[in-house]
Design the sequence.
């Protein structure tokens, strides 16, 4: 299956993508995670991306599309993948169509995680991520770790993403509305979109997403 997860920052895309990808046996491809890995490894690509990310802006398409394409062409993605955070504008969606077409492939579904904006802000403000594994995500109020600052799953250090600070979050939401939301209409015209109400327990949102994929 080839699936795309969309929704504003803080909608739970990373959490749901990790769970869904595991259940479906396909790789979870997050361009945000790929950028963060490049930044922590100090690669030239990471250096290019960092300034944009710190300001809550999109990394330029020429950098992002090439990186996403390379990842989608890895052997583990041959049988399908779940994209999280890519595409993030219409130009990237068009580029993805070309990449898929070249490989004789199509998208199966686009899941749009819907969460009210005030909830999104609360979720991001309290979000803490594990330095060792970015799929281990906590929240200081909604999903706290047992020991302060320590990941329950692997003992890694929990930290607040630089771009989860309030001023950057406002910019990211603005970018989401102006640049990313139009891709929902783009995929609606291809009849691929299912809206998933995502203001619910993590397991319930996963169940709704799996049902939308016909895997309930
Ligand atoms: P995320 O982890 O998906 O919230 O992404 C964090 C940041 O990485 C975004 O705010 C952007 O600066 C950058 N980023 C991630 N994916 C993309 C993309 N598809 N296009 C451009 N920038 C991206």
Sequence:
């Amino acid at each position: 299956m080839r699936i795309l997860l969309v929704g504003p920052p803080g909608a739970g895309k990373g959490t749901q993508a990790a769970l869904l990808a595991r259940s479906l046996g396909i790789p979870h491809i997050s361009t945000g995670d790929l950028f963060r890995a490049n930044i922590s490894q100090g690669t030239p690509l990471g250096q290019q991306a960092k300034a944009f990310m710190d300001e809550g802006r999109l990394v330029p398409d020429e950098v992002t599309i090439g990186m996403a394409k390379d990842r989608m062409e890895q052997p583990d993605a041959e049988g399908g993948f779940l994209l999280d955070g890519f595409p993030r504008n219409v130009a990237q969606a068009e580029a993805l169509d070309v990449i898929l077409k070249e490989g004789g492939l199509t998208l199966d579904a686009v899941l749009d995680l819907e969460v009210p904006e005030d909830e999104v802000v609360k979720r991001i403000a309290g979000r803490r991520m594990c330095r060792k594994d970015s799929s281990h995500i906590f929240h200081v109020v909604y999903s706290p770790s047992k020991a302060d600052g320590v990941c329950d799953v692997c003992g890694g250090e929990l930290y607040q993403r630089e771009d989860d600070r309030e001023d950057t979050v406002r910019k990211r939401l603005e970018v989401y509305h102006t640049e990313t939301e139009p891709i929902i209409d783009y995929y609606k015209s291809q009849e691929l979109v299912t809206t998933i109400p995502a203001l619910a327990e993590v397991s319930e949102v996963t169940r709704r997403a799996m049902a939308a994929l016909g895997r309930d």
